């Protein structure tokens, strides 16, 4: 029995959403996507990522002013 991970690394989040790793890093850097820092590792909660995708559907994620921040 495999458990579903609650948190994803930048690379895992990029892979499961189809968003590039560099774009995912920019979203975190811009403060649009909240994360948990554990040492050097950055963790994104799965539910937060899903909410982020829903709120930003149809928006250009490469333009910081177009991206809505989620809590």
UniProtKB/TrEMBL annotation:
Transmembrane segments: none
Domain Helix-turn-helix: 8-54
InterPro entries assigned: DNA-bd_dom_put_sf, HTH_17, SinI_DNA-bd, Tn1545/Tn916_Xis
A single GO molecular function term of this UniProt record: DNA binding
A Pfam entry, by short name: HTH_17
Domain of life: Bacteria
Designated name of the protein: Helix-turn-helix domain-containing protein
